[in-house]
Specification:
Blueprint (H helix, E strand, L loop, with lengths): L12 H7 L1 E3 L4 E2 L7 H24 L7 H32 L4 H26 L4 H26 L6 H27 L1 H4 L16 H11 L3 H5 L1
Antiparallel strand pairs: 1-2
Length: 233
């Protein structure tokens, strides 16, 4: 009464436990594993959106691919020039508002913004030149986005302000708008090429240490200060 061995179904507990879901909707497997299709679809959507944004930035910055690190530094150099002009113009605006009974709140805002811009210029230069780790670059990128929004608010405030000198208010407002555009552009190029400037935290102290030491110093600098992409190559 026993069926032949070839006709019997072979029982594979591993295959049955991992391959047969109890419910197709929530994908609960016999071994207790649980996963929803919604989570997978959400991850796929986020991944597709990220790939689309990366592809768009690759097209925009295609001319910078040959010298990604140099492009980031040049963009920051242009931003530093406008920060210096804005810093000087902020104190001129404060003096103009003081002579023409301008708002004390706007005078404080002008001085405080100038101090923030100057501080970020020093901090950003230090991070890009000496300490471009993943954490520091991410922190700097977030700071750039915040200050860019602050400059946009300054532009909207001073452009239509009628007290003080209208000409001075317009110059200050236009400089704030220019910095907003420059910060936005710099944030995009830094986010796109961040892999070209990042170094490992343990190696960040060695960036620039090999200067003046001849060939051995140059080799040490390349090894310790190399970016993740350079080390991968």
């Amino acid at each position: 009464g026993t069926a032949p061995v070839s006709d019997q179904q072979t029982f594979n507990p591993t295959q049955n436990a991992t391959m047969a879901p109890r419910d197709n909707d929530d994908a609960t497997f016999d071994d207790g594993t649980f996963a929803t299709n919604a989570d997978g679809d959400g991850d796929d959507r986020f991944e597709r959106a990220g790939n689309h944004a990366h592809g768009l930035l690759s097209k925009v910055f295609s001319s910078c691919e040959a010298d990604a690190k140099g492009s980031v530094h040049r963009a920051w150099g242009i931003t530093l020039l406008f920060i210096a002009i804005f810093f000087a113009m902020a104190f001129i605006e404060v003096a103009t508002l003081g002579k023409n009974e301008g708002s004390m709140a706007l005078r404080i805002a002008s001085v405080w913004t100038a101090i923030i811009q100057f501080t970020m210029a020093i901090l950003g230069t230090f991070i890009l030149k000496r300490f471009p780790t993943s954490f520091s670059v991410g922190f700097f990128l977030g700071l750039v986005v915040i200050v860019a929004q602050q400059n946009l608010v300054l532009f909207a405030t001073f452009h239509s302000y009628r007290h003080g000198t209208v000409h001075s208010n317009h110059i200050f407002a236009n400089l704030a708008l220019s910095l907003f555009c420059l910060y936005t552009f710099f944030a995009l190029i830094l986010a796109h090429f961040r892999g070209s400037i990042l170094v490992a935290p343990a190696d960040a102290e060695g960036v620039g240490r090999g200067s003046g030491k001849g060939r051995a110093g140059d080799e040490a600098t390349m090894e310790e200060g190399a970016s993740y992409e350079e080390m991968a190559q």
